[in-house]
Amino acid sequence: MLKKAILNFKSVTPACGICLNGKISPDGDSVLCPKTGIRALDSSCRRFCYDPLKRKPVKIRKPSGFSESDFKL
């Protein structure tokens, strides 16, 4: 049940690189999956199960164009 609930998020697209079953290969170009074998990072299969710990977060940019005087009262 939890697996289906997580897949409903629109920001998560199925990919072997963030799957619970797969393990990133030492060269970092493919995924070693015990279910389906060697696969590409961006491919997926019906056994996809999202692992949030494998996700790489997007870096937030610092706002530019402000000076210290903009933040003084």
Question: What does this 3D model show about the protein?
Answer:
The structure is a single chain. The protein is mostly beta strands and 73 residues long. 10% of the residues are buried. The protein contains one helix and three strands, in the order αβββ. The protein has a three-stranded antiparallel β-sheet with strand order 1-2-3, with no helix packed on it. Strand 1 (23-24) and strand 2 form a beta hairpin.
SSE string = HEEE
Unreliable spans: none
Count of helical stretches:
1
Q: Got a strand count? A: 3
Beta-strand proportion = 5-15%
Q: Kindly name the structural category.
A: mainly beta
Mean pLDDT: 83
Could you give a short account of the major beta sheet?
3 strands, antiparallel
Radius of gyration: 18 Å
Query: What is the overall shape?
Result: elongated
Largest sheet strand order: 1-2-3
Distance between the termini: 52 Å
Brief account:
The protein is mainly beta and 73 residues long.
Topology at a glance:
Layout: H1 2-7, E1 23-24, E2 30-33, E3 37-40
Antiparallel strand pairs: 1-2, 2-3
